[in-house]
Amino acid sequence: MERYTSFILKHRKMIIVVFVFLAVVCAGLSTKVGVNYKFADYLPDDAASTVALDTMEEEYSQPVPNMRVVIHDVTIPQALEYKEKIEQVDGVEEVNWLDDVVDIYEPLEDADQDTVDEWYKDSDALYSVTIVDDETEKKAAVDEIRDIIGDDNAMSGTAVTDALSPFHTSADIQKIMLFVLPVTFIVLLLTTNSWFEPVLFMITIGIAIMLNRGTNLMFGEISFVTNAAGSVLQLAVSMDYSIFLLHRFAENRAEGKDVQDAMVAAVKQSTGSVLSSGLTTVTGFAALILMRFKIGPDMGWVMAKAIVFSLLCVLCFLPALAISTYKLIDKTQHKSFFPDFHKFAGAVMKIWIPALLIAVVIAVPCFIAQGENSFLYGGSRIYSTNATQMGRDLLSIEDEYGASNPLVIMVPKGDTSKEIALSEELNDNENVTSVISYVDSVGSTIPDGFVPSDSLSQLYSENYSRFVVTLSTEESEEGWTEKLNEVYKICEKYYGDEVKIAGDLASTKDLKETITEDNSRVNILAIAFVFAILLFNFKSITLPVILTLVIELSIWINLAIPYMQGTTLHYIAYLIISSVQLGATIDYAILFTGRYLEERRTRNKRDAARESIRMCVLSLLTSAGILTIAGLALGKISTNLVLSQLGTLVGRGAVISFVLVLTVLPAMLILFDRVIEKTTMHTKFYREVKHHEPKSKK
Fold it and tell me: Of 132, 310, 363, 622, whose CB count within 10 A is highest?
């Protein structure tokens, strides 16, 4: 490392120029990276709903109905005028309303009132709209429909979510970064001894973030989860590495070494801890790569790459930058704003036994509780609050007309009697509010040649007959899977495995099955990866078990809280947090344990634990503070449910891990001190020599 660091320092100006140039280029490239907001696109290719969507695109030109529009306080003629205006919008494939199911020129009192109320109730008209699947046309169509109906009326559905999510998420990211960056800077100012050091930290991580965002172009597009949370997580998780390096640099200079020698020694001393911390974080994210649900690999690859860039910047760019600006570091020195934490360490040591007992008592209940959370899986409820127009519209429509979800059912064409029987049984199902098919709309006795080709092409393709079925349920309702499964059973009764079903609920059903299967595999792999690194790092059998248990307990507590609060979690946030919290906060345990082993060579176990607490608390406070601030900012500011919950879990998880590392971990190290010594290579702990007074002769 000495030769490497000497080379970096000798060519420091070139290093700085190269990194800055690459960061500027990557900043430009980052604007070319596409962002995907569709959950269904991240299902495995062999998922039933994915196959159904692919088949539908091949066989039909029209997608699943994807928007509901409500116009308040209109007469029948006015409602028809609005329908005509919406039909004329470019990108709108079809608009269905009351006039498509009953004769509106006859008195409505004579029509089936349940049918009428599904489309026109209390002078409010509800339309089912189908918009093309092209993103540009979809956005333009949604904006034009909003102009037609105004803000006082409502629209919801996947078309609205797909079209407006980029705008809302982009605005959220800007607000989050505008909050996180200055607050992080203030935290660094308070926890360092130079006014200029935080500037170095922020520049280093800022360049790493730009390098990562720009190189995401290699993937073509990334998920909205990765795009929104990636930079915030990279900032929060990898800031430690810069702090480790510059702290060592300052210590070496305080010992009297010149600037060059101090940095060479600092890189050599901190490389091991920085790389081990970075590697555990990388493996935490890498576990996500093995998920079948493709948002996992998407986030796993991007975030693993992000940590690699952070490590590269810290071990290459930061030494060059720090040496070039060390005079500013010297001129801006200030006294520490924090005490030496001697009293704090003493106070913690007084409660180590109660802390350990509490951890033992709550471990099993928290483990059970975190597995009993209620979940959402799809994208239908990610904007279901009053924080956005989308959320308000969704709640308004559902309050008045209830939940509604269209499914497209495709069955082999050719057997009209089967189609009639299927249609009748679907119509008889209490959860089905409408069925649109050839045999319902045209009739089985009218030859195909007498049916307009446009109408026929939406119902019959070369190989399939298409049914558009509307279910009066949605994902947040209890029992939605049972209601959906009833429809599946009816279809399979007539067509077996040949039936293909597409739609939001069908995709959500597959999402649930896919990511539930992913959960145990991802958690086990993340733990196994981290365990292996700890085993290699400490060359101990016992320490990886202790450290992993402490961080896993913090994860169980974190995920048990939503259960106790009665909060419904989005499963993506639940799934990702286990790997993220493990990878991000295991560093706290590594730092503390490394210090404990060092102190244990010259002190007894209690004094070693006390000194480790005193020496580590500020570094842990800085790291956990930044991660907490970043996470909670994401949680509070984001209007997207997945991102909001992920941020809250990350921020809260950092606090819990911080507390457990400073209370439960010291207790476990003290309790298993003798076992640790015997199961750790090249470890010999300090032993106090007891002097016994010779017994006096009587």
Answer: 310
